[in-house]
């Protein structure tokens, strides 16, 4: 009997609340657009770093240089690979 009364009261309260409609927060589209810009900048910087590292290796090899800074070049290439991967992951998470 008490359970039936609680059930009826719960039904009345839920019926009054209704079904709220979801709404995007203010400036949500601008934040998503900014995120897309950052994703593209990260992808571009990663590809640029990989290209720079490969070009620097080739330049020093063809000019007979002794690879004066192999750590710096390898770091640029590794950083480019990480940045490009991060940009791709961000793009997948955002769903663009």
Automatic annotation (TrEMBL):
UniProt keyword annotations, A-Z: Membrane, Transmembrane, Transmembrane helix
Residues passing through the membrane, by range: 37-53, 73-94
Keyword Transmembrane appears in the UniProt entry: yes
Protein name: Uncharacterized protein
Organism encoding this protein: Nocardia lasii
């Amino acid at each position: 009997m008490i359970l039936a009364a609680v059930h009826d009261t719960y039904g009345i309260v839920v019926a009054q609340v209704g079904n709220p409609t979801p709404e995007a927060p203010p400036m949500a589209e601008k934040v998503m657009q900014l995120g897309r810009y950052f994703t593209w900048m990260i992808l571009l910087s990663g590809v640029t770093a990989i290209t720079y590292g490969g070009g620097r290796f080739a330049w020093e090899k063809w000019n007979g240089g002794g690879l004066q800074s192999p750590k710096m070049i390898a770091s640029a290439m590794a950083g480019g690979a990480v940045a490009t991967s991060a940009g791709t992951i961000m793009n997948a998470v955002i769903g663009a």
